[in-house]
Amino acid sequence: MNSDFIKELGYKALDSRMKRISDRISYSVKKLYKENNMEIEPHWYLVFMLLQHKDKMSIAEIAEQLGYSHPTLVITIKKMNAKGYLTVVNDEFDKRRQIVSLSEKAVSQMPDFEILWKSCEAAILSILDHDLGIVQHLDRIDEAIEKTSFYYRFKQEYSNNIQ
């Protein structure tokens, strides 16, 4: 029987465990996109959904809504724009600010994307056995880190241990 060192470490490897799960899900979603000739990336889903809901937003607004760093989102927006899924224009009042919306290509393909996304949501619910308790735990983790950053907590513990 194979040993799973990350699993054995328990909470000590929480970030690695969440990353591994995320990577496995993303790999599967990416594979399904490819099988269905969809030139999109798994992490674009949130941008598609947000712009479908909000119509037009600045890059900074999207980053804030998703909790992503501005530089990370700029890279994603550039990739999505290069594939023709977004329309990016300079704000008429502030030329430094870019306004992003879904392109006609994205809107026309949205029904096909939504079928895949609903299938993905159903698969996640199946994995969770329809128990959404983990979401509440993640909310608490998010709130705790927002209130007091992990960096600060880590630094405090480190300082306590080296004294």
Structural class: mainly alpha
Helical residues, percent: 55-70%
| Weakly predicted, low-confidence segments | none
Beta strands, count: 3
Distance between the termini: 42 Å
In what range is the share of β-strand residues? Answer: 5-15%
Helix count equals: 8
Q: What overall geometry do the principal axes of the alpha carbons give?
A: globular
Biggest sheet: strands, sense, closure?
A: 3 strands, antiparallel
- How would you write the strand order of the largest sheet? 1-3-2
Description of the structure:
By secondary structure, this protein is mostly helical. The chain has eight helices and three strands. The protein has a three-stranded antiparallel sheet with strand order 1-3-2. A hairpin with a 7-residue loop joins β2 and β3. The longest helix has 24 residues, at 104-127. It is globular and about 55 Å long. The mean pLDDT is 93.
Architecture blueprint of SSEs:
Layout: H1 5-9, H2 14-35, H3 45-54, E1 56-58, H4 59-66, H5 70-82, E2 86-90, E3 98-102, H6 104-127, H7 133-147, H8 150-162
Antiparallel strand pairs: 1-3, 2-3
Helix pairs in contact: 4-5
